[in-house]
Design a protein that fits this description.
Layout (H helix, E strand, L loop, with lengths): L1 H37 L6 H24 L15 H36 L2 E3 L3 E3 H5 L1 H18 L14
Antiparallel strand pairs: 1-2
Helix pairs in contact: 1-2, 2-5, 3-5
């Protein structure tokens, strides 16, 4: 079990690292594209397409890591005034609802990937890209988010801190 846990954590951190690299690529590609246009040239269609895909992937690939590190956005007005037992209950209930939503989205994503494979669908723009390459991120990332939210349902730690204010 220790090896599976270590492999899962490596996958989670690897996905977050890939998302970070894609974020850097977005910055570089946009700067290069602007420079190329200012020189009176036409940037490659690959620049535009790769930045579109990077925005999509970095959002999904980074999400499970953000859930693990409580990097998501939530409003603390209610949770900051709750007594500890009510906070525990509400936080675990919210995490359970998040698990349910993520499982449904992972299942729908799996169905979408399966349909893309069966139909042999392509994303046709500047290049022909098999659609499953885009949609495979849905079931993987949403399933991993479900796992991360489940840690807050059954684990010792809860999703919400119960403290209001900016913590830096």
């Amino acid at each position: 079990m220790r090896y599976a846990s270590r492999a899962y954590l490596l996958l989670l951190n690897g996905m977050a690292l890939a998302a970070a690299i894609m974020l850097v690529w977005l910055m570089v590609a946009i700067v290069l594209s602007v420079v190329i246009r200012n020189l009176g040239l036409q940037p490659s269609a690959w620049f535009f397409l790769s930045t579109e895909y990077a925005m999509f992937y970095l959002t999904l690939l980074g999400a499970p890591w953000l859930v693990r590190h409580k990097g998501h956005v939530h409003i603390e007005l209610l949770t900051s005034i709750l007594p500890p037992m009510a906070l525990q209950f509400l936080s675990r209930l919210v995490a359970l609802l998040c698990v349910a939503v993520c499982v449904v989205l992972a299942w729908k994503g799996y169905n979408l990937v399966s349909m893309n494979l069966v139909r042999n669908d392509y994303d046709v723009r500047a290049f022909f890209v098999p659609k499953w390459i885009l949609t495979i991120a849905y079931p993987v990332c949403f399933f991993m988010m479900a796992i991360e939210f489940a840690r807050f349902v059954i684990g010792r730690d809860i999703l919400h801190s119960g403290e209001a204010g900016i913590k830096e």
